[in-house]
Amino acid sequence: MRNNSVTAIATLGLALLLGGCRRDMQDQPKYKPLHESDFFADHRSERPMVDDTVPRGYLRTDLALYTGKMNGVDVNYFPFPITRADLERGQERFNIYCSPCHGRLGDGNGMIVKRGYHNPPSYYTDRVMKAPVGHFFDVITNGFGAMPSYASRVTPDDRWRIIAYIRTLQFSENATMSDVPADDRAKLGSSSTGELSKISSPNPPPQSTTGPNEVPSPFSGVIPPAAPASPNAPASSEAGRPYGQEPAGAGTLPVSDTTTLQGASHP
């Protein structure tokens, strides 16, 4: 009798143990992404969004702020007040995302353009000067011509800050001393013609403090030191040669009377 009780208890424990090892949670019926479904009439396992609902954080009722348009027309006003902090943020974002092509002055001569990329229009052409601010927002959001969309990299608020900085660049092109507040004129210096006497240039990149045989990290933003030219080196023929043009004799193998085709030298 006692042995039967032990056997029953052992059997029950084993049953409980095996029951706990089931894989129902892992093997439960479910649809893999975009797989067909026989349950729904349209046979789609991916269900459309319920009407009149939006994802959390995407309630964008301010059309001017998020599209730059009202009734399908580009707006010509900023959807929020622009402060000095906004302009400084806009300048920072402009230098990061826009200046490689448009240049820090907005003249369309950025470093990438000098390397062969499509030349963008200058901000100071009559057409761009008269363009509404909503046009710039649409271009940043959706791209235009050779320019790709920056919607995934620049937030809507930062797009407006960049546009405010672009407007500042455009205004500065024809600004006069009378446009400067009286308290700030002394900082700019006097000018007999009434024009701004000087324009502060962008801060140059930090110069290298490494030794001549050291190479700074490519992520440091530091310009490596130039290699000193040898006083006995022949004059370079590179100066004056158009970009992309092959130098004279390019692609040919210099041959001397002491060199064979196999590269072996005779005494």
Can you offer a commentary on this structure?
A hairpin with a 2-residue loop joins β1 (69-70) and β2 (73-74). Helix content is 34%, strand content 1%. Mean pLDDT is 77; it is low at 191-202 and 250-267. The chain has nine helices and two strands; from the N terminus they run αααββαααααα. It has 267 residues and is an all-alpha fold. A two-stranded antiparallel ribbon has the order 1-2.
Compute the CA-based radius of gyration: 34 Å
Structural class: mainly alpha
Q: Terminal Cα separation, in Å? A: 110 Å
DSSP helical segment count: 9
Offer a few descriptive terms.
single chain; Cytochrome Bc1 Complex, Chain D, domain 2; mainly alpha; 9 helices; two-stranded antiparallel sheet; disordered C terminus; 267 residues
